[in-house]
Design brief:
This protein is of the alpha/beta class. Among the domains are: 173 residues; 242 residues, Rossmann fold (3-Layer(aba) Sandwich), CATH 3.40.50.300. It is built from 24 helices and 15 strands. The protein is rod-shaped. The two termini are 42 Å apart.
């Protein structure tokens, strides 16, 4: 690594946290100041994109309904529903998800909704029909439209985590159309659930109708027998005791018939539960299949999203392919792959919906009543029914015993009275049984006619008044925030990857000792050439034209830094990696500052291609002091600064490198060392010519001039390595046109203010 032009100072003490924080703050300010236009451009582009979408994107309206689910409600009237509404929320979360899945994916509901839409007057003008026609062809069928509704328009999801409700939502560019689709979809689901709820009531009603017909036939037969007996036997009233016995037998027979009916109902219920228990295994398999298809559907959706992103990027690069993706083989392959994945997604959705319907809502991964608790509940109900059936059979056996005893007592009565009492008892028993069955049949018929769906609409569909998207305030806020973050990120990235020299800290981090910082002299350069002792000098010679300025002091600091910490170099080589960094101006001001300090200084213009020393000091306005010896192509000049002399080439050589042959330059500098205290070599750009490398072995130190914001640190290191290879070990850096906005401005004393009013420094 290049070494400093001065001896290494002792290690500095550890910096306090406040200093580190202040330095970090300045670093952030430098980043923003340096790359503010990049950050602003990124912010405007990002914010403009969000604003364009917010104001130019077509509005989308959302209409929805909210359904309160009652998955375990038994069939019944509205009072049953009111009682079911008192159940604690959140207990049926698993079935809420299953109902949402069925609503979203069931083909029946979607196709019925699509058919209803197609039956509407002017269905061709509906936006959803036109979009489906663009996707599936001009002839839109109910199946195709239903598929489009499921995948693009209708969304069904749980309304919340703590309530047993689902939300049916439809999107459209027309608010009336969005409300129409959501309303029809909701109605079709309610109709389908009501139809499935009636199936269990129909079986009970058919059983009761058969029992009622049997009892009515028995009653008619008994009435005919009684009429025939009374006519044939001319029977009169029976004894009180006989009547009581017969009445008791009648009651027992009636109770026995009802008990037998209960046994039949219990047996039917038990058989139904056992059949359901036998199908649990297959339904669980369907549930597992549905879960696996859910994972496949998620993977398919991710692949579709990735391919659509690639297709969108291709459209951005090639806008002409947006309306015809088949025109290019790459976009055609991506487009066909997306269509195939969407078809696979629809197939998986239908399989998942069919699996959810076939499993009856069972899900072994659920913690609710549709998981393992359902199997346990089913087994408990089977056990309860078996216990109740045994109890009913026991009652039948007990009633049969009591009836047998009562009949034994009746056998002791006269045959005529017994026969008449039996007929009356049979009639009463048949009437009571028929009335009981009729009441049950009436209740079942009413429940079947008034059967409600498994859900209730608690929030009907309304026509939206405001579009749901795009949300302009939200988009503008997000655009501003994202633009700010991206702008800062871009500035930070550019700041991190920028290899140019901007601050002394960056130059030091590259391995250089910063000898001085020179501010920007643009303001002085605008004033034009200044007259000093009748000589027109360059305005950039601030040590001569404005000796008390802060800019002039920076060159005096540079001169002082060359003498700090050890033996001062006598021959200083000034160079830079590239042209235009102000090397000649820095060398001239440094030489003037050294001469003003009382030293005898020579400024040697070693740039034979574009010499600048003569123009800086106006050497053409005064005669030369003399020329060198024969064979030395040099001319000596005095300058307006006392103690400062200049040396330039008498004529431009045919080959510039010949002037710096080792024996010539060595002899010349050997003579000059005995005459001058300080010799400053102004050399051309080190990467443009080899002059600096030729002169390096004869110099004591080198000043590498870097222009703030322009000079690349890598090129500086390259030049330093080249000079080190030539034998020059003391190399320091000077940051020209540095930003000294954070540096304190020294107060001007009265003497300085008076001096600034006087003419510039004279010889």
């Amino acid at each position: 690594a290049p070494s400093a032009a001065t001896a290494s100072p002792p290690p500095p003490p550890a910096e306090p946290p406040r200093t580190l924080a202040r330095r970090a703050f300045r670093d952030r300010v430098q980043m923003l100041k340096r790359h503010k236009w990049l950050a602003l451009a990124v912010f405007l582009v990002t914010f403009g994109a969000f604003a364009a979408y917010a104001f130019l994107a077509p509005p989308t309206y959302e209409a929805y309904s909210v359904l309160l689910l009652q998955p375990n409600r038994a069939a019944g009237s509205a009072s049953d529903v009111a009682a079911a509404l008192q159940e604690l929320p959140g207990e049926q979360a698993g079935k809420v998800l299953n109902q949402a899945l069925i609503l979203q994916q069931a083909p029946q509901i979607a196709e019925r909704t699509a058919q209803t839409l197609l039956d509407q007057p002017g269905a061709e003008a509906l936006e959803v029909v036109q979009e489906a026609a663009a996707a599936f062809g001009p002839q839109v069928t109910a199946e195709a439209l239903g598929e489009y509704l499921q995948t693009e328009i209708v969304e069904v999801a749980p309304e919340g985590d703590q309530i047993d409700a689902i939300r049916v939502q439809a999107e459209s560019g027309d608010p009336q159309e969005a409300a129409l689709i959501a309303s029809i979809y909701t109605d079709q689901y309610l109709a389908l659930s009501r139809q499935s709820g009636r199936s269990s009531l129909s079986e009970t009603r058919a059983l009761l109708e058969g029992q009622l017909m049997t009892r009515e036939g028995e009653l008619a037969e008994i009435e005919a027998q009684m009429e025939a007996f009374m006519t044939a036997e001319n029977a009169a009233g029976l004894e009180i005791q006989t009547q009581n016995t017969v009445s008791q037998i009648g009651q027992l027979e009636s109770q026995l018939d009802l008990a037998r009916v209960e046994v039949q109902q219990r047996e039917a219920t038990l058989a139904q539960l056992e059949r359901e228990s036998q199908t649990v295994g297959s339904r669980l398999e369907q549930s597992a299949t549905s879960s696996s298809t859910t994972v496949q559907d998620t993977q398919t959706s991710e692949e579709i999203a990735r391919l659509e992103t690639l297709l969108s990027q291709a459209f951005v690069r090639n806008p002409e392919l947006r309306n015809n993706p088949n025109a290019h083989p790459d976009t055609r392959a991506i487009y066909q792959r997306i269509q195939a994945l969407r078809a696979e997604q629809r197939r998986l959705a239908q399989e998942r919906a069919q699996g959810a319907v076939a499993s009856g809502g069972l899900d072994m991964s659920s913690l609710g009543s549709n998981g393992p608790a359902y199997v346990a509940e089913l087994q408990r109900r089977i056990a309860d029914e078996r216990s109740a059936l045994q109890g009913a059979r026991a009652r039948v056996s007990a009633l049969a015993g009591r009836l047998s005893a009562a009949r034994g007592e009746l056998r002791e009565k006269p045959a005529q009275e017994v026969e008449l009492a039996q007929l009356r008892r049979r009639r009463a028993a048949a009437e009571e049984a028929a009335m009981t069955i009729q009441r049950q049949l009436d209740q079942t018929s009413i429940a079947e006619e008034t059967e409600l769906a498994a859900a209730q609409v608690i929030r009907p569909v309304t026509v939206p008044r405001k579009p749901a998207a795009p949300q302009k305030p939200l988009l503008l806020g997000l655009g501003a925030l994202l633009g700010l973050l991206l702008g800062l990120a871009a500035a930070a990235a550019r700041y991190t990857t920028d290899s140019r020299a901007h601050t002394p800290e960056e130059v030091q981090a590259a391995g250089f000792a910063v000898i001085g910082q020179i501010p920007d002299l643009s303001a002085q350069l605008k004033r034009g050439r200044q007259s000093v002792e009748g000589v027109q000098v360059h305005p950039g010679l601030v040590t001569v034209t404005d000796a008390y300025s802060r800019e002039a002091e920076t060159f005096r600091h540079l001169h002082a830094a060359l003498h700090a910490g050890g033996a001062a170099p006598q021959v200083v080589l000034a160079t830079a990696p590239a042209s235009g960094t102000g090397t000649s101006l820095v060398a001239a001001n440094l030489a003037a500052a050294a001469a003003q300090a009382g030293r005898r200084v020579l400024l040697l213009d070693a740039d034979l291609r574009t010499p600048a020393v003569g123009a800086l000091f106006g050497l053409g306005d005064t005669p030369a002091l003399g020329e060198g010896e024969d064979g030395q192509n040099v001319v000596y000049w005095s300058t307006v600064v006392p103690g400062l002399f200049a040396l330039t080439a008498r004529e431009t050589p045919e080959v510039p490198g010949e002037a710096w042959a080792p024996e010539r330059i060595g002899a010349l500098l050997g003579e000059l060392r005995g005459t001058f205290d300080l010799i400053v070599l102004d050399t051309p750009a080190a990467l443009r010519t080899a002059d600096a490398a030729h002169l390096a072995p004869h110099a004591d130190a080198a000043l590498l001039i870097a222009e703030s914001g322009e000079t690349d640190l890598d090129t500086m290191q390259r030049v330093a390595r080249e000079l080190s290879a030539a034998g020059l070990s003391r190399i320091g850096a000077v940051l020209n046109r540095a930003d000294v906005s954070f540096a304190p401005t020294p107060r001007r004393t009265t003497l300085q203010r008076e001096a600034s009013a006087r003419p510039a420094l004279t010889a």
